[in-house]
Write a structure and sequence with these properties.
The complex is a heterodimer of chains A (371) and B (253). Chain A is mainly alpha-helical and 371 residues long. Chain A is built from 14 helices and one strand, in the order H-H-H-H-H-H-H-H-H-H-H-H-E-H-H. Helix content of chain B is 38%, strand content 24%. Classes of the chains: A mainly alpha (371), B alpha/beta (253). The interface between A and B is medium-sized, with 29 and 33 residues.
Amino acid sequence: MARTSTVSAKPPRGAGPIAWMRDNLFSSPFNTALTLAALGLLWITVPPFINWAFINAVWSGETRDVCMAPETGACWAYIAARFDQIVYGFYEKAERWRADAVFIIGAIGIFWLATPGLRAKRAIGAFMLIAYPVISYVLLSGGLFGLDVVPSAKWGGLLLTLIVAVTGIVASLPLGILLALGRRSKLPVVRILCIGFIEFVRGVPLITILFMASNLLPLFLPEGLVFDKLLRALVAVALFSAAYMAEVVRGGLQAVPQGQYEAAASLGLGYWRMMGLIILPQALKTVMPSIVNTFIGLFKDTSLVSIIGFSDLLGIIQKGNADPEWSTPVTATTGYLFAAAIFWAFCFSMSRYSAWLERNVAGGKAGAGKT
Amino acid sequence: MTANADPATAPLIELSHVSKWFGNFQALKDVSLTVQTGERIVICGPSGSGKSTLIRCINRLEEHQAGTIRVNGVELTHNLKRIDEVRRDVGMVFQQFNLFPHLTVLENCTLAPIWVRKMPKAAAEKAAMEYLDRVHIADQAKKYPGQLSGGQQQRAAIARSLCMTPKIMLFDEPTSALDPEMIAEVLEVMVDLAEGGMTMICVTHEMAFARKVADCIIFMADGEIVERAPPSAFFENPREERTKKFLSQILEH
C-alpha cells in the first residue's frame, strides 16, 4: 500500500480486498479462528447441498422411475409434474383461469401500491381493499354471472396460502390498530374488552384457535348458521394476528412523544384526526420492522391450516409426498425444499421491501430527514 | 348560560378559583385571572410554581379540578366537542416546538386548517405561506422539521398556530429550549405578533421581552398568583418579598 506522507483529511484506512480481509477477517487470533471455522462449516455443507439440489438433481421425467436411481439428487421432475396442483390445489382445470385472474389483478395492484411515484394510489388502494376481495371471491367461488361453483374445499396450494395470508395481513393491521387504541382508551369498558381479547388470543396457540373455528364453532351455532369452513379459518387467522399486531402498534404509540399528542390536541384536531394524521403515521413508521416481522410470522403460520384439513401450499406438498405414484427416496425432501423455497421467496421479499421502505419514507425522526 | 356571556364586554379568558392537583401535590391554588381581548400577559416565576400548568389549563391540556375556566365564552368541562372548539381558537407554542416530524413545514401549517377548518388546500397553503413569510421562514416551507434549526422550528410552530387564526396565543416557555443565538429571532416574531394586537399569554423568563410588550406581568410561586402589575411597577417597584427575591435572582445576570 502506497501511502503518501501528507496529512490526509480522512482517517488512514487500507484499501483493496486484501486490506479489507486483513481488517475484517483476520484482525486477531480469535477472529482468524472464527473465520476459519466458518469457512470449514460452509465447506462441509454448501457443496454437498449444491450437488444434491442442482448437479445430481433430476429435472424432467414423466414418472417416478427417473428419480429411483441411487445417488439421485432432488427430484424436480416430481415438482414439475405436480406444479399445477401446488399452485391451484384441486381447483378444476378448466376453471383455473379464474384463479389466474385473481393472481394477476392482485400482483398488479400490489405492484402499483408498492412502487413509489405511481399515481392514483388512493383509488387503487380503495379498489384493492374493497372491490378486489369481492371480485376475488366471486371469481373463485363462482355461482354468479354463469361461473360454475367451485367449493372452497377444492381451493388449495399457493392459491389458498396466499388467500389466507393476504386476508390475515390486510385484516390484522386495521384490527390491530383499533385494538391498540382501545387498549390505551380512557373508556374503561373499551379498554377492558380490548385487553381481554388481546390477552386471551395471545395466550392460546393459533392451532387451538383454528381447531375451535373448524370443529367447535359448528357445535355452538344453530344449524344453517354455520359459515363456510374456509371463512371461519380466515376469521380465526385474522383475529389471531390482530392481537399480535395490536401489541406491536401499542409499542409504536408509546414511542410517540407526549408533545405530539399535545400539539395535535392544541390545534383542536379531535381524537380520530389526531390519531390518523399525527400519531399513527409516526407510530407505525417506528414499528415498521416489527409489523413486517408479524406479517412474515403470519405468512408462515398459514401453513397450520393444513392441520384442519386444508390443502395449502404445505398441505398439498405433503399430500403429494405421500402419493405412491411419485414415491421415491427423495420425493419428500424435494417437496419440502420447494415449499421452503416458496415461503422464503415471499417472506424475504417482504423483508427487503420493508427495509427499503424504512430508508425511503419521507420525514423521519428529528434530524434524520431527507436532504 | 350565565350572566356574563355577553361577548362585547366579557373577558376573553376568565379563570375563577381554579385549583389543580397532581396526586397530592397542589399545582394551582385558587387561581383567579381575567384576560381581556388584546391583552398581553407575561407569566414568570420559579420552576414548579405552576405557570405552565396554568396556561395548559386554558386549553385543557391539563384538567382543573376545582373552580371554573371560561375561554371565549365557553366553560371548559368534560364536553370534548366544546373543548375542541375552544382549542381551535387558542393557539399554543411549546417549549419543545412539537412540530410534526413526518410532515413538511408547510404541511404542518396547513394540516389543521384543512382538516378542522375545512379550508380548500390551495387557500390553506396560500395562507400558510403568508404566515411563514411573516415569521421569515417561507423559504423553508418544503423542508421537514428535522432539517431546521431550533429557532426556525419554533418560528414554524408559531406559524402553525397562527394558521388557525386564533383569538388567543399561549406561549409555554417558547425560548427555553433554544440556543442563545436563536432566542432573539423567536422573540422578534413574538414582539411582532404582540404589536399586531394578538391576545397573548406568555410563560417566559425573557424579562426584556416582558418589559417591551407586556400589558401586565404575573408572578407566580407555589401555585399561586403572588403579584400582578404593569411592567414598570413590576420591575421598578415590586410589592411582594417573593417577587423581589425572584427578580434579584433573574436580573442579576
